[in-house]
Design brief:
This protein is of the alpha/beta class. The protein has two domains: 156 residues, 3-Layer(aba) Sandwich (Rossmann fold), CATH 3.40.50; 200 residues, 2-Layer Sandwich (Dihydrodipicolinate Reductase, domain 2), CATH 3.30.360.10. The two termini are 37 Å apart. It is built from nine helices and 19 strands.
């Protein structure tokens, strides 16, 4: 079978390199491709694209990649390369994807897919008009903890779902005492930074695929750390929000509360956790684990502030076993997207899903700026 040749733009960055190139496409290549039901395999061949010829050359040599280009146009002119992938900074994404669509490439991209809803719709309309298959990274849906949580939802374990509480975040170093573990552009609004733009796109697809579409939002976005230090050790003003506190109303009357912060110290088992409470049971899911407490096993705490509690609450939950081998979430979605391209069927998490994420970003920022509850409008 002729390999699917994939133009990969932005893989010299942290996420593009670790998750998409190293742990997804190169892993698929080295394992002999994506297996199909008939026993055949989809082989892959990456083509690296970026701004630095030297960095690309070093990556290509290190990982035995035959082709790389510091010019996107050269890569797009290759008719044998059928897929374009984008992991660039958000501000560079729109124009590159439009070029790839014009060249007839299938599109797979990181999120946010653009800097605004208008730009996102431009991408979705262009892809639909060109008839190409398009997908947006929805990696968290493929993680073990959320796969287990989805299984609980589908089985009716919760009864009527009442609420979802999400906590995400960790302390990102300011950069003065020690280097920050996120790039400095994340904290500059003019460069496409901000936790609302980054994380609300995630929360939109997590909530709508597990529990239901979002009908309204009330949010407060803030910049807790106003000054940070960049990769060269120079101070700069943080103009983007580094924390957001939001309440989402979902279809079916479910209330979801999610805190997102790069200025919080972690006191939980994982960097992100969701607690789901229903009439018949509750669950707490992270990236990997998922604990449950059925109705019949719910303890009976009694409020008494004068006496220390004798409950060890964490031991009153039961861990769901893996029951299967879970792979890397990014790779799992890549395998699904590659199979969809091979078979010519639409990918379920397409550019319009990316647009809905941007609509939630807009609503969240408007809610924060105006201090109002924002009702979501028509969402395709």
């Amino acid at each position: 079978m002729t390999p699917l040749r994939i133009i990969m733009n932005g893989v010299t960055g942290r996420m593009g390199y670790r998750q998409h190139l190293l742990r997804s496409i190169l892993a698929i290549r080295d394992d002999g491709g994506v297996g199909l039901p008939d026993g055949s395999r989809i082989q892959v061949e990456p083509i690296l694209v970026g701004r630095s010829h030297d960095r690309l050359a070093a990556l290509a040599a290190k990982h035995d990649v035959a082709e790389f280009h510091a010019d996107l146009g050269t890569a797009l002119a290759d008719d044998s390369a059928g897929i374009y992938f984008d992991a660039q900074v958000t501000s560079e994404r729109r124009k590159s994807i439009l070029k790839a669509i014009a060249a007839g490439k299938h599109i797979y991209t990181e999120k946010p897919i653009a800097a605004s809803v208008t730009e996102g719709m431009e991408l979705a309309d262009a892809a639909a008009g060109a008839g190409v298959i398009h997908g947006v990274v929805h990696d968290k849906l493929y993680l073990p903890g959320l796969v287990k949580l989805k299984r609980l939802v589908d089985s009716g374990f919760f009864g009527r779902i009442l609420s979802v509480r999400g906590e995400f975040g960790y302390w990102v170093f300011e950069g003065d005492w020690q280097p920050a573990q996120r790039p400095s552009w994340n904290y500059r609004a003019q460069d496409g930074g901000g936790i609302v733009l980054d994380m609300f796109c995630h929360w939109n697809y997590v909530l709508e695929n597990l529990f239901g579409r979002i009908e309204s939002v009330m949010a407060r976005a803030v910049t807790h750390i106003p000054q940070r230090w960049d990769e060269q050790g120079q101070p700069y003003d943080a103009t983007a929000d580094d924390a957001a506190y939001a309440i989402f109303e979902l279809e079916g009357g479910i209330i979801a509360q999610i805190n997102s912060s790069w200025a919080v110290r972690v006191d939980r088992d994982e960097l992100v956790e969701f607690q789901v409470d229903g009439t018949h049971g509750s669950a707490v899911a992270g990236l990997f684990g998922c604990r449950i407490q059925p109705r019949a096993c719910t303890p009976k705490p009694v409020w008494n502030p004068d006496v220390p509690t004798d409950h060890d609450f964490r031991t009153q939950w039961e861990q769901i076993p893996d029951n299967r081998e879970f792979g890397n979430g990014f790779r799992s979605q890549w395998e699904q997207f590659l199979t969809d391209v091979h078979t010519g069927r639409p990918h379920p998490y397409d550019l319009m899903a990316g647009v809905r994420g941007l609509q939630l970003v807009d609503a969240g920022l408007r809610s924060s700026a105006e201090g109002v509850r924002v009702v979501m409008g028509d969402r395709r």
